[in-house]
Amino acid sequence: MYIQKQRLLTPGPTPLYPPALHAMMASDLHHRTDDFRNVYKSALADLKEVLGTSHDVLLFAASGTGAMDASVSNLFSPGEKVVVCSAGKFGERWVEITKAYGLDPVLLQAEYGQAVSVERVQAALDADPAIRGVFVQASETSTGAAHDVQGMGEAVAKTQAIFVVDAITGIGTMPLDIDNWGLDVVIGGSQKSFMIPPGLAFATVSPKAWAFSETSKLPHYYFDFKKEKKNGDKGESSWTPATSLILALGAALRYIKSIGMPKLVENAQLLASATRDAAAALGLELFAASSPGSSVTAIRAPQGMDSGVIVKEFRKRFGAIIANGQGSMKGQIFRIAHLGYFDFADLFAVVAALELILHANGVDVEFGKGVAAVQRAYARAAVQTPQPVAG
Amino acid sequence: MYIQKQRLLTPGPTPLYPPALHAMMASDLHHRTDDFRNVYKSALADLKEVLGTSHDVLLFAASGTGAMDASVSNLFSPGEKVVVCSAGKFGERWVEITKAYGLDPVLLQAEYGQAVSVERVQAALDADPAIRGVFVQASETSTGAAHDVQGMGEAVAKTQAIFVVDAITGIGTMPLDIDNWGLDVVIGGSQKSFMIPPGLAFATVSPKAWAFSETSKLPHYYFDFKKEKKNGDKGESSWTPATSLILALGAALRYIKSIGMPKLVENAQLLASATRDAAAALGLELFAASSPGSSVTAIRAPQGMDSGVIVKEFRKRFGAIIANGQGSMKGQIFRIAHLGYFDFADLFAVVAALELILHANGVDVEFGKGVAAVQRAYARAAVQTPQPVAG
């Protein structure tokens, strides 16, 4: 074996931002002191700034699914009708959670690789004025498809329902105007665009959603929106906070602020677009071709080849971990992520490695052809106006 | 600015091995305890194993230059005649050190980019039987040229002189049979192939060299070979050791042992050879074409272009730090390193970035052409016998 760096190229956990990792070493503080309250307050303030919202932001020691659970148990009541858009494994998770709490979900399903249209959401809302909520993934991580949350949000805003958006891989990879698009609850997790390890989830809560919390009759204890809001305002978390991760989040947010959220989104969009160009140059077929998101690009394995071979060869030959398909998509597709601490130079390497892996497995590949497609994308985006550099 | 990872692509410091960095966090121990003695002993034992020598290995809290200094002040006496091979900035350092201690160096100089031949060393030894030592760089980092230390060592072994080899960037990038090639003193540093931060230097000492330490009349205190050997055998360092770096070294050595030194060397050789192929594919001229080493490849900037532009653009566009030329070579060449925690996927990215930088500065470059040369080198070396992989 030669040197093989471990490279995390999955849609989560994502490549980590080293200074955020190093910040975790400062965890030798107590969470009920002003030292930590200041850390916590500024992490919450920076998170709010980066998300560009005036809504409250609540932070939980949990994975993203915890905040999904919390958004149901804090805002709804048993028997309430809700619309669930499901276009993949994470849409199916909304179905499971809403059912677990006794809600009555109307399922708007799309085939894997497709997205649920705004029209279908509009029609479901029109059909039943009793609908209390609409649930969706901004970016369906299992297929790489993105939903039109702006269009859906505007449709939901005209009703009494609230719009609950799992944006766990959507944040940082697509524009999300939380306040103006009617995104009542937006859910995120630490191990995605925030480029830190898993363990933190958060939810933004609009005034309309807060009103729902007044009438919700579902039991909950650990995940308590009102309690968390009251404590958060004091720089405290309700229960023991994951201090190391909050220190990491603070460092990552300072970096994200230095880049700027629009540029972070553009980074993912450019990487995704360049990856689609590379796939086309190599004659590979995209899985979510009609509504591709920028968090992850799912690519079909070449005819007659199991995508698991590609995944295993990335690991074996290059120490790189990419994602296979999930469920029935396993063996059919492989997924290259574009979020977290991931730059163009990473993508050059990923596509060069992909070419070598395809070649080694008998696929007719011209070395450098996919890489050149990525280079052209980079040149178009970043080299349009070369600045003179002093020698 | 988009996301730009900082990438250290210089011949030292080199890209760091993350588990070695993390091991530094265990520095909360005292260096005069058995806990640390065990760490120190096994680092010394692993270093000896990795270097493949039966000679004593001495470790110093110092940069590599410290061990160069020590090899003169511990083994020679004022007025003694020595041969110094100088083919770049580091050869010039041997001249400075030997003069600082009052030795009488016979200078065998080669032009920058060239190497000193074995024949010249042989002739100098033949011309003066009083020669007490021969000093050389295994790999001259400033130009990328390598010396034939095997041939030189065999010539020196037949004389009363000792052979002192600065292998700071040679170790891990070229075969070095310390015991059988007559390499009496071999000097290394932590921030090179050992993929950890700067701060540790070491020297191997042959029985022939130890005999020199008995007659040496030069004053020294901090760098004391005999004292360090005596203490090292007990798992101690003479003075306060750089504990964090020794913990890092231990972790890096475990990794290097898992790869194996011959494979680590092959890794650097393949990367260097692939880099030369890429330069040729892009019509770029190598600086040390006649005796290229594998620690670093120095490439001439295209006609009419300052190499500093390339260095600055790597930093500006890709967050990557590559080396310019030193001294009179500044502006003429740029240097891409192949040592440390550096793999093929890194090189794909470096060459793709180089193509983009050349293109952005008006050089006629076909995107992907240099990358394809690297891919072909990788495929020849590592993809000759594709193993079937279960799906």
Mean pLDDT of chain A: 95
Please write the CATH class name of the largest domain in chain A: Alpha Beta
Which sequence of SSEs, written as H and E, runs from N to C of chain A? Answer: EHHEHEHEHEEEHEEEHHHHEHEEEHH
User: How many domain units of chain A?
Assistant: 2
Classify the secondary structure makeup of chain A into a structural class: alpha/beta
CATH superfamily of the largest domain in chain A: Type I PLP-dependent aspartate aminotransferase-like (Major domain)
Ends distance of chain A: 40 Å
Uncertain runs of chain A: 384-391
- Largest beta-sheet characterization of chain A: 7 strands, mixed
Count of separate DSSP helical elements of chain A: 13
Any idea what the radius of gyration of chain A is?
21 Å
- Looking at the overall shape, the CATH architecture of the largest domain in chain A is 3-Layer(aba) Sandwich
Number of strands of chain A: 14
Beta-strand share of residues of chain A: 15-25%
Q: What is the CATH topology assignment of the largest domain in chain A?
A: Aspartate Aminotransferase, domain 2
Order of strands, main sheet of chain A, comes to 2-10-9-8-5-3-4
Task: Report helical residue fraction of chain A.
Answer: 40-55%
The two chains with the largest interface, and their residue counts, are: A-B, 57 and 57 residues
Tell me about this structure.
2 copies of one chain form a homodimer. With 391 residues, chain A is α/β, with parallel strands linked by helices. Chain A has 2 domains: 7-13 and 260-382, Alpha-Beta Complex (Aspartate Aminotransferase, domain 1); 18-259, Type I PLP-dependent aspartate aminotransferase-like (Major domain) (Aspartate Aminotransferase, domain 2, 3-Layer(aba) Sandwich). In chain A, 42% of the residues lie in helices and 15% in strands. Chain A contains 13 helices and 14 strands. The first copy, chain A, has helices at 18-23, 34-51, 64-73, 89-100, 118-127, 149-157, 207-215, 225-232, 243-259, 261-281, 307-318, 344-360, 369-382; strands at residues 7-8, 56-61, 81-86, 104-109, 133-137, 139-140, 145-146, 162-166, 185-189, 200-205, 296-300, 320-321, 323-324, 333-337. The first copy, chain A, has a 7-stranded mixed beta sheet with strand order 2-10-9-8-5-3-4, with helices on both faces. Chain A has a 3-stranded antiparallel beta sheet with strand order 11-14-13. In chain A, α2 packs across α9 (243-259) and α5 (118-127) runs parallel beside α6 (149-157). Chain A is globular. The two termini of chain A are 40 Å apart. Mean pLDDT of chain A is 95; it is low at 384-391. At the A-B interface, α10, α11, α12 and α13 of A face α10, α11, α12 and α13 of B.
